[in-house]
Amino acid sequence: MQILQGKSTIDFMGKRKIALVLSIILLAASIGSLFMRGLNLGIDFTGGYLIEAGYTTDVDIGPVRDALAENGFADAMVQHFGTSKDILVRIAPREDVNKASLSDNILSVLQNASTDTVSMRRIEFVGPQVGEELREKGGLAMLVALGGILLYVSFRFQFKSAVGAILALVHDVIIVIGVFSITQMDFDLSVLAALLAVIGYSLNDTVVVLDRIRESFRNIRKRTPMEILNISINQTLARTLMTSLTTMLVLLALFIFGGEIIQGFAFALIIGVLIGTYSSIYIASSTLMAMNVHKQDFLVVAKEEVVDDRP
Amino acid sequence: MLNQYPLWKYIALIVAIILGTLYALPNLFGEDPAVQVSHRTQSLDKEGLLVIEQALNARSIPIKSSEIIDGRVLVRFNDESSQLQAVEALKESLDKQYLIALNLAPATPDWLRAVNAAPMYLGLDLRGGVHFLMEVDMVAAIKRLEEGMLSDMRSHLRKEKIRYRGITRDENGLHIRFRSFEDMEAALDTLEDQFREFLFISNEDELIIDAKLTENAIRDEKKSALQQNIITLRNRVNELGVAEPVIQQQGDSRIVVQLPGIQDTAGAKKILGATATLEFRLTEGTRADWEDAEKTGRVPLNAILHFERDGSPVLLKRRVIVTGDQIIDAASTIDQQKGVPAVSVRLNSKGAKKMGETTRENVKKPMAVVFIENKVESKQVGDEVIKKRTTIREVINVSTIQEQFSARFQITGLESQEARDLALLLRAGSLRAPVEIIEERTIGPSLGKDNIEQGFMSVMIGFCLVLVFMAIYYKSFGLIANIALTVNLVFIVAILSLLQATLTLPGIAGIVLTVGMAVDANVLIFERIREELRNGNSPQASIHAGYEKAFSTITDANITTLLAAIVLFSLGTGPVKGFAVTLSIGIITSMFTAIVGTRAVVNLIYGGRNVKKLSI
């Protein structure tokens, strides 16, 4: 079966202005939301408590919340988690109580408030200093990953392509973070891990397209740069879509069947793969166009030999 | 001839696949419920094994198998109920020197164990358990060292007959004040000679010597405080009866403690962080003096004011007879005469000697037992994290010395749970410096089970979807890629098992992601082959060119993902590390299977033959 017969001649570059507008809207929305609403950082980064408790029958949130408020946990956030039998309680770091035992107190409050048997499913406690460290480490990891990839790309490709790849990467990362800001989904360590995987994936996709562009510039004569870019994108289109599709299939499997804990992670990757696919087609090559890419950019530079011109 | 592999390549590939399958196999056999028995002081041998087997046979509890591993006895059972019965039986029949822990032992057959094949090590989020990150309070450790040194200096100066006005301690170190310049000079000489850990600076105008610990001494103290705490925590974990615990140093002031499969996390937290210990002191003055001291606040110079649990005051002599460190064994029991909970303790020879002398000289006088607990908590104030230290010191018991004490005696005055905990803590040794739990991740057993089931399911579903999709889209070549993908999965599992790397839930996500991305290499190759075919090349030439041309692109694309994975690994907190590990392994194995593996099959089918049409 072949969906694309390899004969597709879609004029991608002709429509790059539309893509530019789309990207700008997405970026503006992302950055705007990041400034206005910020990220809903998980306890990994803020510090605090997270307690997941399981009941044997369906449980109402209201009475649970009341019971917690009565026992001095008025700031507790309670929600269902996955099923209506599981609840998740979140509490900000506190100053007054013994740290490690607070989660046990919560569990006993939950148990006392219910005739059901309440089982502990998960307790997470991140102290303020650990939260701060993870925040710093996480930011640093992003920068190091971007830096390392920048180095690799600039070593592997010539300047204009490297700029294109990096722009595509930054574009993808900002939009994925933006989606998390707009939806206010929990941004925790696993989402950060997914984001780093998105960096790898997005670049992977872009590199394949750039590789083909380089090859085409070297092999195809008598065509304008725009035509060559279009040809290259069309040639790699089948692969780009195929890989995105298979990756998307497994990510959907993970999102639907992998359980509640892994959902944020899967969601970040799904968004990342979607945006990454789009950006590998448009962002890197549009950047090349904007930078007036030429055949000369891709010629293999022959090393100048030292000529002995002494008489 | 195009598209033919030399024989050795096929052989190498087959060997790799056989090895991969062999080392992936243990994961199919599951686990046996088991009980692990070890001895506090000695490693167990065949005799120990016999004792344990007899104890179980006496209760007719069926044993599946038993063996000795590293001086510990591991007994396997057919089901969980006999495992639980066995624990009860062993606790009753063996003495307290034996440590008994529940365990899940891999049911790997002997022939696989013979080649060192073992199943993957499951992380806490898959098997359930507790992960603690503990910070050792180094300021307290240094304070403790300085306080110890302070009393040493006092007695040294006294021994050398050098007169001094006083020694005090604050956060800048120790300060020794003198009456005369001569005394100060003499003290400086002998102190510099005796206390090499300190740097002494004398102030001639004020007649003060300031003593500061040297950088080296501070570093050594921190190191040994950490090591000592790790040893103590390990002892405590053993007392709790946890199989396969992890207790590791992290950084220069932190300790990671992982306890798989533990149910009572609240109890574990209390025991691990506890610094409870005891002190024995003689009292000072009469009961009337004590009440007087509480009212007026005037405490005699050689005494300190403490309170009993009911709030009544006690004056204690400054000199400590014996501390908890000198207790080498302790057990909770019931006092025969009074019928109240008690802790029976045994002192080491130095402690016993001191206790013996003191009690002989003070028969019919009262002695107090002080229960001491240190707590440290950090809280955030603005941008700063401030540590709050509290020490609870209560007198749990004041009783009249009836006769000279031996090395063994009993203490009363505690609740029964307190007595049990204190006995455990005294046995395991005290922490050199207080620890604080700064991170906790606990997964209950039910969630662990859900995680592993859901993780497994999502891998299988994702895997099958990709298989179906590839077969439809690339026909014969798709099937070849599917073989490669399957082998790839086997390789990932085999390598994870071989490295005994920890498989976590994000690790499973990494495997899922690898499955999706592993076909990328094949997609690149197959699309290239299709393109070559469309350009009118012969099938053989197209296969050759497809593999050839796609190679550098595949390498480039995979290196970038690998880079991200390496950064992730170095960021490495627990679960995220698991993701990085499986992703990296998956990338490397997928390059091998997708390029070398599929090529081998393609060459075998099409190589050296006159092919008119490719099924691609």
Describe this structure as you would to a colleague.
The complex is a heterodimer of chains A (311) and B (616). Chain A is of the alpha+beta class and 311 residues long. Chain A has two domains: 13-41 and 130-298, Multidrug efflux transporter AcrB transmembrane fold (Up-down Bundle), CATH 1.20.1640.10; 48-126, 2-Layer Sandwich (Alpha-Beta Plaits). Chain A contains ten helices and six strands; from the N terminus they run αβαβαββαβααβαααα. Chain A has a four-stranded antiparallel β-sheet with strand order 3-4-2-5. A two-stranded parallel sheet of chain A has the order 1-6. In chain A, a hairpin with a 1-residue loop joins strand 3 (77-81) and strand 4 (83-91). Chain A starts with 15 loop residues before the first helix and ends in a 13-residue tail after the last helix. Chain B is of the alpha+beta class and 616 residues long. Chain B has four domains: 7-25 and 444-606, Multidrug efflux transporter AcrB transmembrane domain (Multidrug efflux transporter AcrB transmembrane fold); 31-107, ACT domain (Alpha-Beta Plaits), CATH 3.30.70; 139-218, Alpha-Beta Plaits, CATH 3.30.70; 274-442, Gyrase A, domain 2 (2-Layer Sandwich). Helices cover 50% and strands 26% of the residues of chain B. Chain B is built from 16 helices and 22 strands. In chain B, the strands form six sheets. A five-stranded mixed beta barrel of chain B has the order 13-15-14-19-18. A four-stranded antiparallel β-sheet of chain B has the order 2-3-1-4. In chain B, strands 11-12-6-21 form a four-stranded antiparallel β-sheet. In chain B, helix 1 (7-24) runs antiparallel to helix 13 (445-499), helix 13 (445-499) packs across helix 14 (505-534) and helix 14 packs parallel to helix 16 (574-606). The longest helix of chain B is centred in the C-terminal third of the chain and has 55 residues, at 445-499. The model of chain B has no long low-confidence stretch (mean pLDDT 85). The chains are: A alpha+beta (311), B alpha+beta (616). Chains A and B meet through strand 5, helix 5, helix 7, helix 8 and helix 9 of A and helix 9, strand 18, strand 21, helix 13 and helix 14 of B. Strand 5 (119-126) of chain A pairs antiparallel with strand 21 (435-443) of chain B, so a sheet runs across the interface.
